[in-house]
Amino acid sequence: MQKQEPESNNTATSVDGKEVAELNELSASDLIATLNSLKTEEQDLLREREHLQKEENELQNQAFTLIDEKKKALKGLKSEIQFLQNKCNELEQALGIPVYE
Length: 101
Known about the structure:
The chain has helices spanning about 20-25, 30-95, and strands spanning about 15, 20. The protein is mainly alpha-helical and about 100 residues long. It has one domain (about 15-95). It has a two-stranded antiparallel sheet. A hairpin with a 2-residue loop joins β1 (about 15) and β2. It is rod-shaped and about 100 Å long. Residues about 5-15 have low confidence and may be disordered.
């Protein structure tokens, strides 16, 4: 069984760095201004997050494209190297030169 703390009349609980007691002392117009300011900040942060998410996606797409291009280039180089090795082996055999791989 959990021990319950006695309820207190202290209303000073933290709300985003401000105390509720401090907020209670604000006028209605100050509360509205604070609320509007927080809403504006929230919207700015949401827009920034969306912008960064889009940028991240674009950068990931660029990375995927670059990776694909590099893989194709490497595949082409490996194929070309294999072709040249085979040609060299054929020429070495035709010339009677020992083949070393």
